[in-house]
């Protein structure tokens, strides 16, 4: 389900052009916008023509706490109007230009695109870079999804339990820099707080039965199953009680030693229920998953580019056994296994479905934020190893993908989802002025 957002909508005009045709087009636009899921609008119903009208519209839109502003150039218009809106609303702007109408008596009727040009120049030269242009009869829904991403991060409360995994220096990040760039607040908790979190016997019993229904549990002990059930209940109630949008967990090396199992299987179960859980204390990877969720991607998961085959042009998108169990391919045996951490791991083991996929990584390096994006197609495979994985062939040759990752120092975790969501992230990066790595 996509992140719900609030948008302001205003249409600008000038009576020296065919403003009456623009009004008719605007009525159709308003009806079309209302069909888009999970968007609440503050719509200025009439064309904004005069400066005073823009000032009144700006105050009304600003009072509604919008996440972004759609400014339609119904016709060419005064240059004052977008600046009056911008200085009060101060949110990312979609500059929307309409297709020109057939000429009427040799006169240009709308001159809408020139209005977009005027507005973009005024915004750029006044220091605003948070605008994006859309020309056509329909709104660019990728821009709307980019605003969902921005809103999801700005309103996020992300927890990290423990720290990053031992030796994974590349998963380190600057918390206040992350706050400056995204608006997300990160709260730290100790592992012991989760291990000792109190849950009811009823909750544990329900999770135990659920695990037995979803997984083949014949290869783990009753004690291990009980621990997975207990941890599933603990993580769910911990996240809910703290009001967390997402949680990154230092899942090794202490977990198996001190709790008795690793959290992989519990995380697999909960992620299938739309909990955003990042492994190995990877906060930026967890942010990436949260952003994927904001645009409606189903149950994102973290994976490594593993077992890259340069000759056959594919990579295994693998992790030790934490992917959401709802992504099982439906053919192989879906099971829990204790191969990891000297028999104390308890991971989910299954091949994931083969379908179109896209990957994302929000990644910081030396104070700069970047967005890594790729997409490809899954290739059916047998269950030949432990963990959760699928074979992926990218649109670009795997040699090129690997060179891009290595030469840009992108961290080794990527958020993976089924479907292509890359365009919204390119627009988001443009709004944020982050570098796009493809």
UniProtKB/TrEMBL annotation:
Keywords: Carbohydrate metabolism, Coiled coil, Isomerase. The keyword rRNA-binding does not apply. It comes from the Bacteria. Residues 19-64 form a coiled coil. GO terms for biological process: monosaccharide metabolic process. GO terms for cellular component: cytoplasm. GO terms for molecular function: intramolecular oxidoreductase activity, interconverting aldoses and ketoses. The keyword Ligase does not apply. InterPro entries: Fucose_iso_dom1_sf, Fucose_isomerase_N/cen_sf. PANTHER family: FUCOSE ISOMERASE, L-FUCOSE ISOMERASE C-TERMINAL DOMAIN-CONTAINING PROTEIN. This is L-fucose isomerase.
């Amino acid at each position: 389900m996509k992140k719900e957002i609030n948008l302001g909508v205003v249409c600008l005009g000038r009576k020296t052009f065919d403003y009456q045709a623009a009004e008719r087009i605007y009525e159709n636009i308003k009806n079309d916008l209302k069909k888009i899921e999970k968007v609440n609008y503050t719509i200025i119903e009439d064309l904004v023509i005069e400066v005073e009208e823009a000032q009144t519209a700006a105050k009304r839109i600003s009072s509604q706490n919008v996440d972004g502003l759609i400014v339609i150039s119904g016709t060419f218009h005064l240059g004052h109007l977008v600046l009056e809106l911008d200085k009060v609303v101060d949110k990312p702007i979609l500059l929307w230009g309409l297709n020109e109408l057939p000429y009427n008596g040799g006169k240009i009727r709308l001159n809408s695109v020139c209005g977009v040009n005027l507005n973009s120049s005024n915004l750029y030269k006044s220091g605003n870079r948070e605008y994006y242009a859309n020309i056509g009869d329909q709104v660019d829904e990728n821009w709307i999804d980019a605003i969902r991403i921005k809103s999801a991060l700005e309103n996020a409360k992300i927890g990290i339990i423990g720290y990053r995994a031992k030796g994974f220096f590349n998963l380190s990040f600057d918390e206040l820099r992350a706050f400056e760039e995204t608006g997300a607040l990160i709260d730290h908790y100790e592992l012991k707080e989760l291990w000792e979190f109190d849950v009811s016997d009823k909750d544990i019993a329900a999770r135990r039965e659920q695990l037995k229904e979803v997984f083949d549990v014949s290869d783990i002990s009753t004690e291990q199953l009980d621990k997975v059930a207990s941890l599933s209940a603990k993580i769910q109630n911990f996240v809910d009680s703290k009001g967390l949008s997402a949680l990154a967990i230092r899942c090794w090396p202490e977990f198996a030693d001190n709790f008795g199992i690793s959290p992989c299987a519990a995380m697999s179960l909960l992620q299938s229920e739309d909990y955003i859980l990042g492994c190995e204390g990877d906060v930026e990877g967890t942010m990436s998953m949260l952003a994927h969720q904001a645009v409606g991607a189903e149950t994102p998961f973290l994976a490594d580019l593993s077992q890259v085959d340069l000759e056959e042009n594919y990579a295994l998108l693998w992790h030790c056994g934490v992917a959401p169990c709802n992504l099982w391919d439906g053919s192989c045996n879906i099971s829990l296994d204790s191969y990891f951490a000297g028999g104390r791991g308890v991971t989910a083991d299954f091949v994931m479905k083969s379908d179109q996929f896209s990957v994302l990584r929000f990644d910081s390096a030396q104070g700069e934020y970047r967005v890594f994006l790729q997409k490809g197609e899954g290739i059916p495979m047998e269950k030949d190893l432990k963990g959760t994985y699928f074979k992926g062939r990218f649109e670009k040759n795997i040699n090129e993908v690997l060179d891009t990752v290595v030469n840009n120092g992108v961290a080794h975790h990527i958020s993976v989802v089924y479907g292509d969501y890359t365009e919204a992230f390119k627009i988001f990066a443009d709004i944020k002025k982050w570098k796009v790595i493809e």
